Amino acid sequence: MKAEDKKLAYELFMSTDLTQKEISKRVRVTEKTLSAWVKDGGWQIQKAALNITPRKTIAGYLMQLEKMRETISAREESPWPTSGESDVIMKISKSMKMLQRDLTLTDFINSFEQLFKFINTSNPKLAREILDFQNEFVQIKAKELTQ
Known about the structure:
Layout: H1 2-15, H2 20-27, H3 31-41, H4 43-51, H5 54-74, H6 83-101, H7 105-122, H8 124-146
């Protein structure tokens, strides 16, 4: 029963805005147990990875660059970037390039979700078996990010 409780707690933690106290009540485990699962499994960083995606980060960077471009071009006397602005532009550009190149925890999670849905349509038993390996892999990757 503990394994099923943990899976339910994980799903509630990842897919809702419930507090840990609310989740522990629903799953009928102590708050201490749930806190241990969250910490040991790297659930916090996994949830952040789902919410802070490279796509969203890049979109934010692009908006910042556009705002800078507007500010710079609005200057009549010097419509070109200062050295400080050029540095910021270069740093943002490098960050965007890195985000586009590297696989992130979000990429793994999203890919695994799609794979699970695909396999689950034809072989639900196999999908559930694979899900355990996928979750273990994501937990390992999440822990690597915090070390």
